[in-house]
Amino acid sequence: MADPFDVVVIGGGPGGYIAAIRCAQLGMKTACIDDWTRAGGKPAPGGTCTNVGCIPSKALLQSSENYEHAGHAFADHGIEVKGLALDVKKMQARKDKVVAQNNDGILYLFKKNRIAFFHGHGAFAGRDGDAWKIRVDGASPAELVAARVIVATGSKPRALPLIPFDDDRVLDNAGALAIPAVPKRLGVVGAGVIGLEMGSVWRRLGASVTVLEALPAFLGAADEAVAKEARKLFARQGLAIETGVNITAVTLGKADVAVAWTDAAGKAQAASFDKLIVAIGRVPNTDGLGAEAVGLALDERGFVAVDGECRTSLPNVWAIGDVVRGPMLAHKAEEEGVAVAERMAGQHGHVDFNTIPWVIYTSPEIAWVGQTEQQLKAAGVAYRAGSFPFSANGRARALGDTSGFVKILADAATDRILGVHVIGPFASELISEGVVAMEFGASAEDIARICHAHPSLAEAMKEAALGVDGRMLNL
Ligand code: FAD
Ligand code: NAI
């Protein structure tokens, strides 16, 4: 048996591979095990995020947005496009290349940081004194001994109880990212983040898209004003969104899939689609981990149970990312990975869930950090709001993308920023200013007094901050 490792990380997604890098940086002898395999049997570290999540979805969102711009937005700029054509195969091949570049980048980072990488499935195989034995099955079989273990095994898509995924007509996120030709009629179950992003991709490429959402409210986690604006803009783009839907039957036909539901008014409805994407949330992945054998406690929903510092029920075993409670976001998984590595090294890693940004990469993009107006109202917090529309921002006008606004919510007594909400161009980039402000305990007045470059979209952030005090300059 080889020398024991200080740390073995099970799972090489954004949580696991970042945790491994930080452990190695802190001088720990580190191994990472990941079972994702690409064509040809090569390892594909990076997890859901790199292989079938964040990265490929953003590649297709960019490609489809380019196509839509060339077809619709360029004319306004005096650019005439003739013979515009779509090559979905090439678009998919580009996306696959972007993914492979990221896989290779992570393999390089393992080498650079002297992390032993094992390609295969890791499972707890009992104790070796105070240490843990971890068995690796697959391409690089091994039995490892680890003083400490980080479980970062991620999540997997949740299927409708009515019908399993079949990789052909009823698609999960992996299937939604790999559709080989534009479907004429696309159904999407769930108006969450995946449903809206993937629905946008295929609508831009020419599909007629219907999104069926169970909850009565649209984007219930977002600020109500943002959700309202988003729904209006998505409808204008042609994304048909129905809320308050109860799906009663899903039936595979010869070449289609028939869906029956009752609508918000209780009326029976039905439609037939060429493809159906089911995006109704994800469940933690503890498959074949040997959790039960070693007594690793799971909570009632199947997540690995952890305390506020990501410690599990077992000594020297930690868990991070999608497999534990909290938002299922790549950057949350990464931050937990860094924090756990630092705690192991006797430092004081910290993750503040209140300052984790959320981004939906639709057009316009939607991003927020901190509290929504409805949350502040429910908690009885007195606040002031400032809101500035991109239609009054010079850079947005020059871009030709003036939809949406920035809204800043600040404590009525102290002016401390409690939430920042953006719907509009590059919201994903703009939100960082809100995150920094909140992390530094900034007031709206602080942002209002900071010099922002002109012309820039970030000026909308400054104006919204000025708006908290009722003194916007450009509106
Ligand atoms: P994962 O990324 O799921 O990685 C876990 C890894 O461990 C996988 O490779 C898995 O195969 C492997 N594994 C599991 N069990 C074992 C085992 N026993 N042995 C060895 N290996 C094992 N988040 C964002 O922040 N921004 C986005 O834009 C975004 N877009 C998304 C788009 C889609 C379509 C989807 C589905 C998700 C998206 N997410 C996004 C969410 C993000 O992908 C996840 O939050 C993130 O990947 C979680 O990281 P993780 O390391 O916890 O788990
Ligand atoms: P989600 O939780 O965002 O949305 C699921 C939606 O499906 C919800 O609105 C829910 O009410 C609805 N739903 C549940 N059951 C239903 C049913 N039977 N019929 C109709 N609707 C139903 O989950 P999603 O979109 O699957 O994404 C999974 C995770 O991936 C999310 O937690 C998200 O954090 C992450 N993700 C993040 C992205 C980003 O950061 N940009 C992009 C894509 C995914």
Characterization of this structure:
- 46% of the residues are buried.
- Strands 1, 2, 3, 4, 5, 6 and 17 form a seven-stranded mixed sheet that branches. The chain has a five-stranded parallel sheet with strand order 8-15-9-10-11. A five-stranded antiparallel sheet has the order 18-19-22-21-20, sandwiched between helices.
- The longest helix has 25 residues, at 88-112.
- It is an alpha/beta fold and 475 residues long.
- α1 (14-25) packs parallel to α9, α3 (54-73) runs antiparallel to α4 and α3 packs parallel to α6 (193-204).
- The chain is 32% helix and 25% strand.
- It has 14 helices and 22 strands.
- Bound molecules: flavin-adenine dinucleotide and 1,4-dihydronicotinamide adenine dinucleotide.
Give me a quick take on this structure.
The protein has 475 residues and is an alpha/beta fold. It has helices spanning 14-25, 47-52, 54-73, 88-112, 173-176, 193-204, 224-237, 291-294, 330-344, 373-378, 394-399, 427-439, 444-448, 459-468, and strands spanning 5-10, 30-34, 116-119, 121-128, 131-137, 142-151, 155-157, 170-171, 185-189, 208-212, 240-242, 246-252, 257-262, 268-273, 275-278, 282-284, 317-319, 358-360, 365-370, 383-389, 405-411, 417-424.
Which cofactors or ions or other ligands sit in this model? flavin-adenine dinucleotide, 1,4-dihydronicotinamide adenine dinucleotide
* Helix-strand category: alpha/beta
Number of helices: 14
Task: Write down how many β-strands occur, each being a DSSP E stretch of 2 or more residues.
Answer: 22
Please, what is the average pLDDT?
Answer: 97
CA-based gyration radius: 24 Å
Outline the biggest β-sheet.
Answer: 7 strands, mixed
Distance, first to last CA: 71 Å
What global shape is seen? globular
Which spans have pLDDT < 50 for at least 5 consecutive residues?
none
Q: What share of the residues lie within helices? A: 25-40%
